[in-house]
Amino acid sequence: MFKGILITNGDSGYNAQLRGIDETVLPEGDVSVGVEWSTLNYKDALAITGKSPVVRRFPMVPGIDLAGTVLESTNPAWKNGDRVMLNGWGVGETHCGGLAEMARVKGEWLMPLPKYFSARQAMAVGTAGYTAMLCVLALEKHGIAPDDGDILVTGANGGVGSIAIMLLAKLGYRVVASTGRSAEADHLKALGAVDVIDRSALATPGKPLGKERWAGVIDTVGSHTLTNACATTQYRGAVAACGLAGGMDFPATVAPFILRGITLYGVDSVMAPLELRLEAWDRLGRDLDIAKLDSITREIRLSDAIATAAELLKGKVRGRIVVGINNNA
Description:
Layout: E1 2-10, E2 13-21, E3 31-39, H1 42-49, E4 65-73, E5 83-87, E6 102-105, E7 111-112, H2 119-142, E8 150-153, H3 159-170, E9 175-179, H4 185-191, E10 195-198, E11 214-219, H5 223-231, E12 233-241, H6 255-259, E13 263-266, H7 274-287, H8 290-295, E14 297-301, H9 305-313, E15 320-324
Parallel strand pairs: 8-9, 8-11, 9-10, 11-12, 12-13, 14-15
Antiparallel strand pairs: 1-2, 3-4, 3-6, 3-15, 4-5, 5-7
Helix pairs in contact: 1-9, 2-3, 2-7
């Protein structure tokens, strides 16, 4: 038996509970990991609350991120005592995840804990920071340079948005942050944004083409926000889309793509190949300001995760949340 959050969906309805879990609940895998740290992301909050059909197999341990130590392995790539981490691969959705003291996973999903980070810091980065770096890489590989113009970051108070601002600012880009929380403007500027705009300017239906403003965009929202971001991106600019907090729809026209030659990059962190993951984490180690990361990180206990998930969906959480799996203080 080990402690964790278990989601069930049966005669009594959808339920997430911190409880003892029998090891037989864990799915097949060739590596068992003693989890020390995890995170609480938007997707985890949806899974825990049942607000969206994230979980596709029951019972399920949520948690799309984990970091810890190999307990047992039949995979030749890993041995007992190895320090490892995992982001994505469907854990917390179709395969039991990181919000528990133990996980059993496929060895090919694991990465060595990056040399730049402790396990707690790696989880403060988590899928959110790793996704932000993938977006930055997409803009860089498109050829967008710091002197090409403003970069828009939507959903700026979230985990992806916050870390994207920090990364872009350190690399010399001029960042404009979009948020629905105007009271957070000073906080976003402290992270590196030079200007903050209200999300309402982007969140309602707009014209097929607007005034050219953005050299590039990192969008975590989707729907009308993504549509308007595309419509106001400069000629031959690029938009990296990685989120759907505002909806899965894309009520756009082809005008920005045909008349301005912009490119829309879909950024997937869940199934990204190992080579790309290693590149992203290496760049995070070199380009992320750890002091700023610490300033946006909140640590909670595993026993607090269910209540905090509800807070997150209500927009009451900023930045990153790390979960100390064995922290009972």
